[in-house]
Amino acid sequence: MKIIQLTDTHLFANDTSELFGVKTNLKFRNIIEKILVKDIVDTDIFILTGDISQDESEQSYQIIAESLSKLNIPVYWIPGNHDDVTQMESVFNKYKDFVRTRQLSFPDWNLIFINTKLNNADEGYLSKYELEILQKELQLASLKKIAIIMHHHPAPVGTPLIDHYILKNNAAFWEIVTGTKVELIICGHVHGDYAFKYNNIMIESAPATCFQWEKGTTDLRIDPHIGYKIYYFDAHTYNSTSTIWK
Hints:
By secondary structure, this protein is an alpha/beta fold. The chain has one domain (2-245): 4-Layer Sandwich (Purple Acid Phosphatase, chain A, domain 2), CATH 3.60.21.10. It has six helices and 14 strands. The strands form three sheets. It has a six-stranded mixed beta sheet with strand order 4-3-2-1-13-14. Helix 2 runs parallel beside helix 3 (85-92) and helix 4 (128-140) runs parallel beside helix 6 (170-177).
């Protein structure tokens, strides 16, 4: 199983708009061109891990939907703190390859998708309902290896600028997942390529498609690199590789 993760595209309705001086739409188109040349072969699914839009416009969601639907590969998505979920659903539901689900089952792995968006806030939060859903899905998938897909990071990455906007009730999250079959947590939000172990579970994030936050920074310092991440799963384990360039 080969999965490409795209995250934090921060798209606008038009290609001329900028976020911190970056034309994010053009960066996204650059990403798609790179994937088509380098990595599209044998890709089973895409996962979009939130902050797809910056202006929450219908047009911004249509841009990514039209770009990826041409590839005829299923796209599984979750919202980020910058997304308008109602708008996302309205647009994405028009495209047959765009799917919002709670779990995705493969022969040896189950992927569980959870929503960490807290309305009108940049930090993440899991509602009581989301925590109950997570617990239920973990029980149903208990015979397989499990990967959790979420937007906000549940443990610090060591960059204070973004760690301030972590999953706020992460203690409740870890109480549920620790000691289960969860082997991997995939997140977005941090605008950086990270991979580390916490509570004996690997946490990985993909580089954002628009720009990265300079690692370790406390201020708004931008790293102009862009990229995406690929995960390969088999019966025994998984491995990942990131494609990053300026």
